[in-house]
């Protein structure tokens, strides 16, 4: 297994939240390396991860992901989810334009006066927070993919796709949900008999916020 790809997969799940520095890098708990941003996590055995990739500082209180895993209620039989099915579903979701953010106001559309501190419209972008035309497309924030009665946002579904591509696998197994149904649990069979595990927060609010949720036949999850 390419260790650069393992690192790339882990970094897909870390946080960029300045208030949560303990989530900025993968970290080790026991024999496993975790990466999480509180919306998803990836778990891989430490033996196949280079030590410089993760932290193991006993003074830092890392997120207690194992406590979430212990709440998992396994299905009678795992549901096989194919990469092609997720890609097909996500490509049918509505998209929105992406714009380069104004460097003067960091995309806020407003700035503060140097003299009095009063908030006012940014002169550079005329209050839009954007500069120039569209530079691409991204998923609508309300987009979601349904796994039976569970929903994963488009952004997290895209993270599943990218993680699978890092490991060069065509399918994963949805094997359970945490008690209460807040997190979907997946396993991923890597090369040479190794396994990785992923958890993704159920975005149930997207049932109402998404105008037209996209469903694919991954099976009905109780």
Shape: globular
Assign the CATH class of the largest domain: Alpha Beta
Per DSSP, what share of the residues sits in E-state strands of 2 or more residues?
A: 35-45%
Major sheet: 7 strands, antiparallel
Q: CATH homologous superfamily of the largest domain - what is it?
A: DNA Polymerase III, subunit A, domain 2
CATH topology of the largest domain: DNA Polymerase III, Chain A, domain 2
Binned, the helix content reads 10-25%
Can you put this structure into words, describing what you see?
The chain is globular. It is built from five helices and 14 strands. The model is unreliable at 206-222 (pLDDT under 50). It is of the alpha+beta class. The strands form four sheets. Strands 1-2-3-13-12-11-4 form a seven-stranded antiparallel beta sheet. A hairpin with a 2-residue loop joins strand 9 (144-147) and strand 10. It has two domains: 3-93 and 140-215, DNA Polymerase III, subunit A, domain 2 (DNA Polymerase III, Chain A, domain 2, Roll); 96-138, no CATH class.
């Amino acid at each position: 297994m390419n260790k650069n790809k393992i690192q790339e997969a882990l970094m897909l799940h870390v946080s960029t939240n300045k208030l949560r520095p303990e989530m900025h890098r993968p970290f080790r708990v026991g024999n496993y390396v975790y990466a999480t941003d509180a919306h998803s996590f990836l778990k891989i055995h430490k033996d196949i991860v280079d030590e410089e990739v993760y932290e193991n500082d006993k003074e830092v209180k890392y997120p207690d992901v194992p406590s979430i895993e212990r709440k998992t209620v396994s299905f009678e039989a795992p549901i096989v989810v194919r990469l092609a099915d997720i890609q097909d579903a996500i490509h049918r979701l509505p998209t929105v334009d992406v714009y380069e953010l104004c460097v003067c106001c960091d995309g806020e559309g407003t700035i503060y006066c140097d003299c009095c501190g009063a908030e006012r419209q940014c002169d550079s972008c005329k209050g839009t927070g954007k500069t120039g035309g569209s530079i691409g497309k991204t998923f609508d924030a309300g987009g979601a993919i349904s796994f039976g009665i569970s929903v994963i946002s488009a952004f997290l579904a895209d993270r599943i796709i990218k993680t699978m591509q890092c490991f060069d696998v065509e399918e994963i197994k949805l094997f359970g949900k945490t008690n209460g149904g807040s997190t979907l649990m997946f396993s991923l069979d890597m090369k040479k008999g190794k396994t990785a595990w992923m958890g993704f927060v159920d975005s149930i609010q997207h049932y109402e916020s998404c105008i037209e949720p996209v469903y694919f036949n991954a099976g009905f999850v109780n």
